[in-house]
Amino acid sequence: MANRQDPRVLRTRQLIKDAFRDLLRTKGFDSITINDIAQRATINRATFYAHFEDKYSLLEEITEQVIREMIPEQVMNASEFTGEICDQLIALTHRYIEDFYRICRMDSKSMATIVDAKIKKLLQQKIESILLKEDTCQMADRKHTEIMAAMTGSAIYGAAYYWLNEKNTRTDLLADLVRPYVMNGLSRSRMRE
Question: C-alpha angle 157/132/76, rounded to 5°?
């Protein structure tokens, strides 16, 4: 594999990502081929495979990159899972899902499954990292923290996805509905420890 810091490698990877995004706007994920991506990126298939295993790994990387870029600095540096942090995670999850489904043709179950799983995993990781920064007396059991983070991330994702499908656009109302549920769940779980 090529040096990922080499400017030529970075440029080629960006060409591939841009080509893939362009194709997602006009073609269904399932009908996009590596050949399509390579032609649009003005590279050959071998060059594509030097950078990505397949279109699924490309989709995962793009999804992760976009989400990480959307995470506010306050959330990145949070040392406590507060209502405000919860609100920001709800808003960014809703915004990402909305942008993704609006821009991309979502006629592929495999694509939706990959994107949904990646969003949930990244949410869980971010929530878990915040919870682990909190008082270790409250979060002594790592497995318990992982489960709490998974449930919290799933609740946020599920609510944001439902909200989008119901054509609701007011994320402040979504946050007002979800935050108490999430914060109460975390609070009760901590009291049992």
Answer: 60
Rounded distance, CA 65 to CA 46, Å? 23
Indicate the class that CATH gives domain 7-52: mainly alpha
For residue 120, what are the contacts with CB-CB under 8 A and spacing of at least 6? 153, 154, 157
Which residue ranges in the chain fall short of pLDDT 50? 137, 139
Asked if residues 183 and 83 have their Cβ atoms less than 8 Å apart, the reply is yes
| Token pair for 137 | 């007396």
Distances (CA, A) of 40 to 12, 15, 24, 101: 12, 9, 12, 22
Task: Give the CB-side neighbour count of residue 81, counting CA atoms within 13 A.
Answer: 32
Q: Which two tokens stand for residue 89?
A: 């995670």
